[in-house]
Known about the structure:
By secondary structure, the chain is an alpha+beta fold. The chain has two domains: 13-40, no CATH class; 95-301, Exo-inulinase, domain 1 (Jelly Rolls), CATH 2.60.120. 17% of the residues lie in helices and 39% in strands. The protein contains three helices and 16 strands. It has helices spanning 10-22, 25-36, 60-86; strands at 115-116, 119-125, 137-139, 143-148, 153-158, 162-167, 176-184, 191-201, 204-211, 215-222, 225-234, 244-251, 255-260, 263-269, 276-283, 289-301. The strands form two sheets. Strands 1, 2, 3, 4, 5, 7, 12, 13, 14 and 16 form a ten-stranded antiparallel sheet that branches. Helix 1 crosses helix 2. The longest helix is centred in the N-terminal third of the chain and has 27 residues, at 60-86. The protein starts with 9 loop residues before the first helix and ends with a strand.
Amino acid sequence: MANTTHPADPDSSTQLAANSQGGGLDNDISARKRMEVGLSARRPTANSAPLRPPTTNSFSAARAVLPAFLGVIVLATVFLVAANIWDWYPSWWRAPAIVADPLRTVTAPLANPVQVAGYQMVLSDDFSHADTVFAEGAQVGKWRIEHQPTSSSYLMEVWPNRIVWSLLDETDNEPQRLQASVSVATHTPWGYAGLVNRYLDEENFYLFLVDGQGRYMVQLQQDGALATLQPWTKVDFLNAAGSTNTITIDDDGTVQRFYGNNMLLYETPSRLPAGDAGLVGGSREDGVAEISFDWIQLFDLLVTQ
Length: 305
C-alpha cells in the first residue's frame, strides 16, 4: 500500500507555533476554533482582568462626624478640668456660698421646750419639714448640700480634700450643748463629719469630727493657724460608714467636751470666745464623700434662781 503524504499548511504551522510559545495547548485549540468561524485568533479587546464599577462609601459622612464629636467632648473635658483648677466658672454658673456665710435663723419659737440634764432646748431640727434652719446650695467640683424632707435628712456631698460647714447663726448660747446624728455613706468611708463650735470667722473655730472608719479628731484654728489637738484615733464605740453616730459638744463656757454615742472622746479648755456653731462635712483625697445628718439639737444652760 502506498503511503500518501499531505503537505503541511504553512499558515497553520506558523499560527500553531506562535500559539505554543504564548499559551500552550488550550490557547492553541481556542485560536483554531476562532479561525474556523472566521474570527481572528486573538480578541484584541479582551482585558486580563475584569472591570468592575467603582465602590462608593455610603458612610463617609458618619466617619467625618464622629471625629468632630469626639473633638468636642475632649475640648469640653479640658475646659471643665481647667475651670475646676483655676475657678474659671462664669458668674451664672456659681451657686451661693455657704461656708462662713450667715444662715437663716429660727423664725418661730419652739413649742414645749424640753429639759435634758440641766439644759433647755432652744433649737431642734429633724429635717422632716419643708423649711430648715440650714442653707442649701452647691459649688461645682467642691461641694453640694441638699435638704431632703421626704427622707428627713440633710445631705452633704464633698469633693476630695474639701471641707464645708453650715452655721446656725446662734452666737449667744454660752454655756450650751450641741448634738446631732450623722452617718457617712457605706460606699464613701473616706468621708468625715462633725460639729464646728466657737466659730468667729474663717480663721478662728473648733472642729470636732468623726469619720467612716470609726475614728475621731479635734482641731483648733486660731488666727489662721490650724492645730490638731487630737489626731485621728479609732475607738470601739464609734460606728463605721453606713451606721449613725450621735455626736455632742458640751460647752460650759470654760471647757469643751466632745462625746461620741454618749462616750467622752476628748475635752479641751476653751481658747476662743463664744461664737457660732454648725454642721461639718469633709472628704479626704480618695473621692467624693456623702454625709447625711438626721437631726440636730441645741440646748442652753438653765439658770437657777
